[in-house]
Amino acid sequence: xxKKLLSxxxxxxxxxxxxxxxxxxPSTLTILSITEGNVSVMxxxxxxxxxxxxxxxxxxxxxxxxxxxxxxxxxFFDGSTIELQAGTEIEIASxxxxxxxxxxxxxxxxxxxxxxxxxxxxxxxxSRYEVETPSGVVAVRGSVMQVYVIEDGTTWIINxxxxxWAVAQGVELQIPEGGQCITRPxxxxxxIDLYFETDAYLGLNGPATLPPEERDPxxxxxxxxxxxxxxxxxxxxxxxxxxxxxVTDVFSPEVDWTTLFRFSTCEPGMPIAGGEYIFTGLDADGxxxxxxxxxxxxxxxxxxxxxxxxxxxxxxxxxLVSWDDSPxxxxxxxxxAEPPLGFYQLGIRKMGTDESVYGAAGISASPHxxxxxxxxxxxxxxxxxxxxxxxxxxxxIGACVHSIAPEGSSGKAFEYNSTDTDQGIxxxxxxxxxxxxxxxx
Length: 441
Known about the structure:
The structure is a single chain. This protein is an all-beta fold. It folds into three domains: about 10-190, Jelly Rolls, CATH 2.60.120; about 205-295, Immunoglobulin-like (Sandwich); about 310-440, Immunoglobulin-like, CATH 2.60.40.3080. The chain is built from no helices and 33 strands. The strands form four sheets. The protein has a 16-stranded mixed sheet that branches. Strands 17, 18, 21, 26, 27, 29, 30, 31, 32 and 33 form a ten-stranded mixed sheet that branches.
C-alpha cells in the first residue's frame, strides 16, 4: 500500500523495554516466520507481488498479503509478533531502534483483514507499536489485541490482554480487558455491549402421529452475539464437539455483521435430555474469546404438534394462510397467553434455489396474512420481501411452531421447532400474478 491513508486508526502500544543497553548499530531484523497457503510479499519500491517464503527478511516499505484460507506470522526484532488471518493485507511502514535511548518503533498499516498482535513488554515508555487502519487512533500499554478491518474501513479492536484506549474524531475511549470497540470512518469510537446468547433445541419434521425419533430429528444450535468472532464451538453431552458457522436469513434482519453476528447449524439426531451443551466463541486463531462462553440444557418436555391442515387463499391484500392450531402444552406452548409461551412461524422459500425470501414469527394463532405490499408488514413479525417484491418463480410456504423451556427449568429459550413439510403451500409468481398450485396437502 503506497497511497497515504486519508483517515488513520493508529494502534499505539506504549511498552517497557528490557533492553539494558544498545549496540552501536542495533538490528531491526524482522522476518516472515510462518506461512500457510497462498501468502505474497511486495518489496519496497516495487509494484508486483511475489510468493512469500518462510524466513524472508522484511523491511520498512514491504507489504504482506494473505489469500483465502491462508495465514502468516511476522516476528519483529523485539520479539513481538503479528498474525495475519485469511484475506489480510498490511504494510510495514517503519522499523526503528533509537541509538541514543534504545526505544523501539514498529508502525504497520492494515488496510483490510484480521490480525492478532502480541507485543512484548518493553521498559522504555517511548517505545511504540502502531497499527494504522482507515478509521481512528488506539493506544495500548503492552498487550495482546485483535484488529479486524472491513472494506469500508470500519474497524473492530478487541482487548485480549492489557490496557487500550481508542481515539478518533477527538474522542478518547478506554477499552476494558475483554472488551470490544468499533470505530467507523469519520465517527468517534464506541464500546459494544457484549452479549453471547445461545440455545440448543430439537427440530422435528413430520406428523405428530410419529414419535420424535422418527420425525427427522436434529439438534438446532443457535447463537446471537455482539462479540466479533470467527466461529463457535459447541461441546455436546456425548463428548463430541461441532463448529457452528456464521449464517443469516430473513428472520435475523438485525444481523449486520458489524455490531451483531449470528451462527447456526443443525446436528442430526436426538438431543440428550438433561445434557449440557457448552458454547464457546472462537477467535481467528481458534482460541476461546474471553466472555464468549455459555451453556444450555435441553429439558425434554412434551413436543408440540406441528400446524396441520395448512391452507391458503389469495385475497386483495395478499395470501391469507390458515391452519388448525396445535394443542396447548402448559408452561411450554401457549402462544395466546400473556406473555406468550412459544409461537407459530411462517416462511417462504424460492424453490430451485432454496433461498429464504419471507418470514413471519411471533404469531399467536391462525390465520396470518402474507402481505402483497410492504405497507402491510407488521413490525417485529413480518420480515423479508412482500409478495409484490418477489421475482418470477415457484415458491413454497411452510409453517412451524416454537415451544420454550418451562420457567424454572434448567433450559433456556426454545425447546422445539416442530414442522411438517408435507403441509407446504406451493404458489407461483409470473409477471406479478400469483397462482396457488397447491393450496393444501
